[in-house]
Amino acid sequence: MSVPTTHFVTLAAVLFAVGTAGVLLRRSGISVLLGIELMLNAVNLTLVAFARQHGHLDGQVFVFFIMAVAAAEVAVGLALLVAIFRHQQSIDVDRLNILRW
Amino acid sequence: MELAVFYVAAVVAVATGVIAVAHRNPVVNVMSLVVTFFCVAVCYALLAAPFLAAAQILVYAGAILVLFLFVVMLLNAPLPATDQPRQLQRVFGVAAVLLVGLGGAALALVAAPGPAIPPAEGTAAAIGRLLVGPHLFAFELVSVLLLAALVGAMVLVKRKA
Amino acid sequence: MWAELAVTAAKLLAVAVVLLTCVPIMVWVERRGAAFIQDRLGPNRVGPMGLLQPVIDAVKLFFKEDLTPGGVNPVLYTLAPMVSMFVALVTFIVIPFSADAGVEVFGVPLRGIHVAPDLGVGVLYLLAISSLGVYGIVLAGWSSNNKYSLLGGLRSSAQLLSYELSLTLAVLGVILVSGSLNLQEVISRQGPELWKWHAVTQPIGFIVFLVAAFAETNRLPFDLAEAETELVAGYHVEYSSMRFASFFMSEYINIVTISALTVTLFLGGWQVPWLTATLSGWPLLLVSVAAFAAKVAFLLWLFVWVRWSLPRFRYDQLMQLGWKGLLPLAALNLLIVGVAMSQGWM
User: Fold this and answer.
1) Predicted confidence (pLDDT) per residue in B12-62, tens digit
2) Euclidean distance between the first and final Cα of chain A, in Å?
3) CB under 8 Å to C39, separation ≥6 — which residues?
4) Is cis: bond before C311, omega within 30 of 0?
5) Chain C contact for B58 (CB, 8 A cutoff)
6) How confident is the prediction for chain B on average, in pLDDT?
7) pLDDT digits 0-9 by tens, C200-213
8) pLDDT band at C233 (very low <50, low <70, confident <90, very high)
9) Under an 8 A CB cutoff, do B51 and C157 touch?
10) I need a surface site. Which of B82, B156, C88, C101 has the fewest CB within 10 A?
11) Quick check: is C77 in a domain?
12) How many structural domains are present in chain C?
């Protein structure tokens, strides 16, 4: 183990924080989805790092499933975004307030 | 040597990650996220997960982000006049980010390393055995999920005839 | 460690040089071959039999004015041809050009002319890098600030993505039989006999792969995205001089790479039916390289032959063929291979 696990987990924590910043602080729907992808990748990195530390591959199988689920989520999320854009000609998430009381 | 590769990959990953969420131009955001995913794939390779490294490039960089790029180009949405959130949101957002970032880093640093177990090599064969063995149910369920997502995405963008 | 690194670097350099030399040769073959198919002579004035024509073409392209159109995004405009070239060049490190003949160079085992013999996920790496080729095209189309470029870029990338699926499924049939993602293993599984080649045992997969290969490299009959008569030049219409030369070269390098991949996966790689099983050492190395080169040359000629013989597909016909024709066929191939393997026939 030439690179300690804590290095990888710290990198993952920083990437997760950057992704959270993207989700919370941007108004464009695309940026929100990009932030979500970054967060998912950070989690994947954590899982693989711990899988290596504990010596069995279940973490890597979990990451495989997360990749598949992320692909599905991106497809549906972008389809939603396209449908929203067709309706109101903008992808500003602050304008998605039709269902508000 | 591996430490040097890790540091380069880490610095580039964080830098391009910040560009990916901060830049105004959405095409630049997507392209810098591609570089971030590349660096994460390098980290997987360092962590004895070659199959996942290749799958990361194939799925994330080669498919998901291409889909993002397509949508960005097809929508050609005008950049919002002020892409800045309101003041309160900004405060909460920064607070949440700091909490998450520092909390995660703190947890990472106190994670006690377990006993020295020889790492299992993440080859395609090994992962495949796990997928059709203990995790068969989840594997089949994921294929149903992908089908549902496929049909759902097509229904969502279907124009009313 | 340094000796091994030096040997790998030497192999890398040798293969890169050969690959880059293939481009002018392909240009010459294309132009003379096209001419003979069309019952004319082609370039035959520059050098003997027109062999220096590609060199002169390269010089001409080099001296053309490198103009950047107004309103383009400069970073992406410059990045696109670089991405295309990069993707085209790094795929060859997993392709075994010769047998692992047990030859030693300066005390270091050569492991055959195979730059990365230990990459356990060889085929997956190749598919991953090919899927990155879409970025060069999409970025070129977008950043050129030209509606024809954008249309061509989007069409071309949609085509590439669609046919990538059939390509991957066809490859999957081969991998299923070989039991490994490493390309040397795939070749050694194709046995010394001719009837064990995957083109013979999985003909549907072979046809699907070949058609998808034509679509992946944007070659006729699937080159609508860059056809001169349709979209002016598609995604690279706004590029001139060396940037256009980058796209041009990366297209030909892609053709060579995919021919090499077809030979490796379906046509037995560097094997000659009974010859390579009996040789060893330096003769094996040379014979296997020659066999590989001959097979790849045949496939390159096939690419040129098909280009000048078949008419172009319309875009909707192309997409229909990809999704409604090739994908079910590739899935059928996988089914047949699976059944055959479970019954022990393969």
Assistant:
1) 999 999 999 988 888 889 999 999 999 999 999 998 888 999 999 999 998
2) 55
3) none
4) no
5) yes
6) 85
7) 889 999 999 999 99
8) low
9) no
10) B82
11) yes
12) 1
Indicate yes or no: CB of C76 within 8 angstroms of CB of B50: no
- Summarize pLDDT for C133-147 with one digit per residue, the tens: 888 888 888 888 777
pLDDT digits (tens, 9 = 90+) for A11-58: 999 999 999 988 888 888 899 999 999 999 999 999 998 888 888 888
The residue ranges of every structural domain in chain B are: 1-77, 130-161
List of chain A residues whose C-beta atoms are within 8 Å of the C-beta of residue B100: 13, 16-17, 20
Round to whole Å and give the CA distance between B159 and A79. 12
Domain residue extents for chain A: 5-93
Q: How confident is the model at residue C328 (pLDDT cuts 50, 70, 90)?
A: very high
Q: Report how far apart, in Å, the C-alpha atoms of B52 and of each of A48, B42, B128, B151, C116 are.
A: 9, 10, 12, 27, 18
Task: Indicate the fold that domain B1-77 takes in CATH.
Answer: Four Helix Bundle (Hemerythrin (Met), subunit A) (1.20.120)
C-alpha distances (whole Å) from C16 to each of B76, C40, C113, C115, C255 are 39, 34, 12, 10, 15
CB proximity B130 to C under 8 Å: no
Instruction: Supply the pLDDT for residue C329.
Output: 94
* Residues of chain A found within 8 Å of residue B63, distances taken between Cβ atoms: 71
State which of B144-158, C63-77, C233-247 shows the largest mean pLDDT.
B144-158
Structure-token pair, residue B124:
């395609």
User: Domain range holding C208?
Assistant: 73-342
A5-93: CATH number: 1.10.287.3510
Residue C206: the pLDDT is 94
Q: Do B74 and A15 touch (CB under 8 A)?
A: no
Q: Using CA atoms, how far apart are residues A59 and A48, in angstroms rounded to an integer?
A: 6
Q: What is the mean pLDDT of residues B79-95?
A: 69
pLDDT at B83: 55
Residue C158: C-alpha distances to residues A25, B74, C12, C129, C180 (Å): 32, 12, 32, 17, 30
Tokens of C180: 């490994």
B80-96 mean pLDDT: 70
pLDDT in tens, C39-94: 888 887 777 877 888 888 888 888 887 777 777 888 888 888 889 889 888 888 88
CB contacts < 8 A (B, C): 67
C60 domain residue, yes or no:
no
